[in-house]
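RESIDUES AND SHAPES:
===
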Amino acid sequence: MKRRLLLSLAALCTLSSWSYAQTTATPSAQEILGLVRRSYALQDHKMTGKLRDEDSGREEPLELTLTSSVMRFRFASSPPEIIHLDLTTSPATLWQVKPGGSSQVPLTNAADSVRGMDFNYEDLSQRFLYWKNVKLMDANARITAARIKCWLVRVTAPNTSGPYYTVDLWVHQDSGGVAKMEAYDKAGKLVKRFEVTKMWKVGEATALREMRVQSFNPLNGERKGMTYMTMDKPEKQ
């Protein structure tokens, strides 16, 4: 079985050799979410790349470090900023580091844009991976473009305090990585979509090469913006 490095929401990539793919039992929805979270423990990679806004063409260089305890996003352009996700807590804790000090990102800032792109801090915090209300919608879902077999899991927020109320996750059965995500507001309107569009082949694994992030106006369903994340081949730490 080939190992795969796939998207876990805001390009938070996961790598795993653990799989249900060759077993007859279908895991529960909670077990699938647990697989996504546990796959973080196998991380030890450093990746470089960039974000690009489709409408303006503006680019933002990015360095992403993945370890068993932290995911760190480093933006070197002015103003410099580091965002890191502490994976040793449950749920994971998102911190923002700027000149002058660091602070935990408050829930009130969850919907704020990161570097003016179509990512927000909720995307990077991945709080939805810890929500308790979870349901397996399809045990044999497929993403046609990527030709991969997934479980489709739906998670629902415990309250309406954040920017997302329902999130659908397409979890790749071979890796536990999230290959696609769609987020909806409390009225059931689509507001965000992440999807892997290109992959690198790295030895026995595959790595994220390009991801498309789209934001939508919930009032009329029109696309508000689109950001591409493109990554160079990952380096082993």
